[in-house]
């Protein structure tokens, strides 16, 4: 009898489905987790310590990182200015990082990210992953400004580039290790790192990875309730961590910054650095089509107005203290989402008016990227319900799809542009990219 009981227990254990999701505590116990965030209720209700969830960050690169870095790091050529030697935050350091946050600043565009830069640099004094991330961004940005973006082989890459990639991987690895058991300081570190990671991937023109960082960072903000939000129809919960960095505000600032293509341009330079630099800048391309020159900037202006209203809305959400005020803000949120939907409809009409052969201009694809980010940010505001998860997943998948498309177009352009430098014009590339706005 005792043997049969033991056998039944053994069969039950063997047949139990492996737990691949859920908090670390439930996975160790091999029990089904309710996956409530930030802490599993099964652990809380049984008096256990919930050890959190798997880190949303992982190391990923567009090419293998091998021993080639060692040679670059040993040389020390041109790297003295980006070594971790600072011990206090100087105004010029803040100005420099503020400029390095976005490749748009290569056109003397001013970003409104001084506070974000100061916060990142201050944290980098004591937080190794953030320090590695800052060093990576500085090295990669200086490499871009020195060498340009026309290189297509590993052999052409400078020591500063290899140093930047090494520092990037050290930042990713350190952050993933820290987030194995997240607390406030580690969540703060993750969001500050995420700001720098987004900028790093913009410099690298890796928009697929850039979108992944955006999605993961916004997910952290939402799951750990950086702002107050409803958990049911009339139940308002205060911010769980009311001092987390606002990654969504940072991202909107990057995208909403002025773009050259919205201004009156001179002639398009399809053979030199002007076109190359324009490509790196998130929302701009030179133009040859009068329709695109007049229509695309108007579409960007409309989206910029919605973005400015979204920033005002997020500021109000941060201050909300009563259900009545929150309900009024819910109506404002709905109006902003309607404006985004109307904008997208107008963009489709613009596409029909242009009727140009081939894919849409890269600049318009970047506008879709920006639109999708605004939609995800607004959907998550004031709402912490489980019903929202499926909708956010759908919109995140759409954002990733847009980013993948933009990344493919940019890679094709860089390849074609590099070949034109050595062998003259490539007709197919000119057809696809000569009319971008």
Short description:
By secondary structure, the chain is mainly α.
Measure the end-to-end span: 80 Å
Shape: globular
Average pLDDT rating: 76
The tally of strands reads 3
Percentage of helical residues? 55-70%
Number of domains: 3
Portion of residues in beta strands equals under 5%
Sheet having the most strands: 3 strands, mixed
The tally of helices reads 17
Give the topology string: H per helix, E per strand: HHHHHHHHHHEEHHHHHEHH
Helix and strand composition category = mainly alpha
The rounded Rg comes to 24 Å
Low-confidence stretches: 13-19, 55-86, 261-293, 419-437
Enumerate the strands of the largest sheet in spatial order, edge to edge or round the barrel.
2-1-3
Protein name: Zn(2)-C6 fungal-type domain-containing protein
GO molecular function: DNA binding; DNA-binding transcription factor activity, RNA polymerase II-specific; zinc ion binding
Keywords: DNA-binding, Metal-binding, Nucleus, Transcription, Transcription regulation, Zinc
InterPro entries: Transcr_Regulatory_Proteins, Zn2-C6_fun-type_DNA-bd_sf, Zn2Cys6_DnaBD
